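The authors assume throughout that readers already know how a fold can be written as discrete tokens. For illustration, here is how one protein appears when written out as sequence plus structure tokens:
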Amino acid sequence: MPNRKRQEEEKMKRRSPKMVFLVMSVFLACVFLFSFPAFAKETKQKWEILNPEGVVKIEPMKINPHPSTLDGKTVMLRWNGKHNGDQFLNRVGELLKENVKDVRIIKSWEVAPETVDPIAGSHERSQEFARAIARFKPDIVIGAQSD
């Protein structure tokens, strides 16, 4: 028991009111000094502004020549599978047949059903679709996305 009593006395000595006062004074002095900008070293802020849209690389490209008339030409109607796009293109095909002499209409969704996909998902897949359509050697392609 005397040993335990001695330990408690030593703890009390370490926690004497003078020691507590000293520790609290140092703590408050630090808080005071770092709370006011006049005492703290000023640093210049450096900002970097980022554009979250990403970088779009635009390269010039050669546009294919368009025919001056559709008379006697082959027109590919390209539908990507979205709702009612085929209905719109069917009507475009009907109007072309009515108004253009000897026009040939090809519907991509009938001759190349693998190209019907609302979300190609990649540049490579879009190129596959373009190659599939090009096999039919159309003079012009009319596409409809619809929604």
